[in-house]
Amino acid sequence: MANVGNVMLRFAIPLEYGAIKDVDKGLEDLNKQVKAAGIDKILAEVQSQVDAFLAAKK
User: InterPro entries per the record (predicted)?
Assistant: First the structure.
């Protein structure tokens, strides 16, 4: 998760504040970097926990 956080600091914050002139390229770079940092694994784990929580409520 720390890797994704670092990517967000490096790429997302400048996008949010308008520091990146080419927004489309900035978003493309952000998406590539978070994927490389392991966002898919994090999202899969979050979904797994949500599914387990909902299953336990039945």
Answer: DUF3502
